[in-house]
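Summarise this fold before class:
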Amino acid sequence: MSGETLAQKILSEHAGRPLSVGDMAVINVDYVLAHDTTTAWAIEPFRQIAAKVFDPKKIFIFFDHAYPAPNLQVAEMHRKIERFCREQGVKIHYDGVCHQVMAESYTYPNTFLLGADSHTPTGGGIGAMCVGFGSTDAAVAMATGKIWVRVPQTIRINLEGKLPLGSYPKDVILGIAKELSSEGANYRVVEFGGSAIPDFGVPSRLTLTNMCAEIGAKTGIVPADSQTRAYLERQNRYQPFKELRSDDDALFERVLDIDISKTEPTLACPPDIDRDVPVSEMEGTPITQVFLGSCTNCRIEDLAVAYKIMKGRKVKEGVKFIVTPASREVYEQGLLNGFLMEFSKMGATIAPPGCGACLGRHMGVLGDDDVCVSTSNRNFTGRMGSPKAKIYLASPATAAASALTGKITDPRAYLK
């Protein structure tokens, strides 16, 4: 009998029995996550199942996708959710993007997070199994504390070597998207390993696992280790945990070995995540907007990268440079170390913590023929507004360099 994958081990523990790949099981969930869209859709299904949630302390509701409310319809939706949460004794969080705040303050290694949002896999960067579900599934989990799963196969991606100057985890995962395609990991777990992973801190790992949603994965995960422990200690919430690993003889559906020392600054060209090319091939393309934000890339580390490139310079006249910290914590860190003040002096617009322009609802909606370099995770037609706009996905470094020149720009010239 072959060994177990990390996903098998976590799911078996939550099912209370050994599970094999392909098994169906009902498991206990540690956290249920929903936000100011998916919660609204979960309320009626929930009422058909139960009168009270199974445990209000294990349910996390966020106002982040359209907060503060940009119009009357959203304001009324917020009111509906607020009434439900008061009735159920559930706290609403206003601290920024749900995935970032969960990683900062709540998600723990080897736990299971059910999230009514497709980018729930972000939390896999902490070594948890974090899976996106629909609002009806979230309603079931809110009522019962349980959900059914089919144990997925695992794709193992080994990252080897060291990143060269000007390349970042975002460039790595865009290259993986090109290799696997936008559907290459459908209903799979993507597990990251290899000699490079110990050099990736949790913020970098969150970028990798966040983007696994864009290649169809059920989730992405990085086994918890000393980097995880250091991150939890910095967040003042460390408690001892098991460093679970896939067994040496575990059967993976596929193993992909990637030498990240060959990674170049990369763009995902519209309208698909897997249309990835080196930035140098698109250099000089005029742009109208840069969005430094989202659960993919607007942590304090990302602000630091952008600041290093932009320090002492100005945003190109005519370019809208929108900086949206991923959480209140990131926002406050950016205030304390002066990044946000300096970005403002450079000509940036600083938005409150949240999803912001990422999904095209407010704080940076694209108009016809706008061209945006975005640190977010999706570039399909109409994602950020007009279907006539174009979105290029890039690292914070490429985004910052492009904001300075008003055109797609390789960041390496600013890092020498």
